Amino acid sequence: MLSLGFFDGILGVAWLAIHQSIDAKIESIGVALALVGGGSALGSAIAPLILKSISHLALLKAALVTQCMIMLILGVSESLSVFAALYGIRGLANGLAHASLNAFFAPRMSGSHLMNVHGGWGIGIASAGLMTGWILNQGLNWWIPYGLGGLLTLIAVCSLWVSRRSLQDLGTHGAVDSSAFSGVSVPMIWAVLSGAVYVGLEQGVGNWISVVMVAMHAVDAGFAGLATGLFWGALTFGRFTLGLIQMPERWILTGASVAVLISLACLPFAPAYGQMALYGLTGLAMAPIAPFILVIGARMVPTTARDAMLSIQIVGFSAGAAVIPAVFGVVATEFSIERVLVGFVSVACMLLIAVMATLKQQESTC
Q1: pTM tops 0.85
Q2: Domains of the chain as residue ranges with CATH
Q3: What is the pLDDT of residues 40-65, one digit of tens each?
Q4: What whole-number distance in Å separates Cα of residue 45 and Cα of residue 88?
């Protein structure tokens, strides 16, 4: 998760230099985000077919090897098409990695413990944003963070190999009786939709922070990197700590969704430092949403259907990550970059509605 997050955290800050290097408009970040999200959706969709032939951990290692190679060659990109194509290939590997990883861990732990696993992703994405901002401020090349991320991914592959026996010994939790499973249900649809909207908002906010702040407040790359790192850092901190709160999952999900909406709604009225603080609050509030939704989805189906259910959820995640940030790109191009903040609030409203519907449907089936 750490290496997957590190890759995801680079583009939002590095794009300030990348778009000049490859002669692309700053709003074109939406193209790369759309392709990586689309590739992730495809990877998540085909993961159950591949998992019939190989193990979860084997597929995860293969996906990480692919990411490693992509990160090491991204620096040769000389055009938006080449850069975006490489991001699309990485998206495919990312979808396979997340589908296999979540399908392996979600049935084996609670939502609180899964937050810790996802916390590793948050550490990676937060550190990448901070490091990339610092590297650009030093006048160094934009591809250096990708090279460092490639080495980190290689270490992750080696770690999986060393710990493979310990991971394989993890047992699964109980599941719904397979005789009670009768295909896709309304609660499952809402769970998938909630996840899609959430991840689209998370990726949209995280990757558009630097572009929006530069447009609104003319901040430098270091400041933009700090704001991006604070957002992802707060999300990571929340995933390691909010699980300690002894409250029903439905209360945590509802409160988190409301807090996300309120903090994003305040962004247009805040100065640069105020926006940075609000991004941190948004990241903290977002922390429990994805892991809890994944666990809720895994509990809706029997053990034999969990790979398929987790794959559907990850497809939803990837689709949201592809569509919503790309829509923000359309908004920035057709109207103004500042209007992207309105998009944040609109999607946050959709998230609250989807989460409430998911919890209501889950309660009605209990």
Answers
A1: no
A2: 2-165+184-365 (1.20.1250.20)
A3: 889 888 888 898 888 888 899 999 99
A4: 15
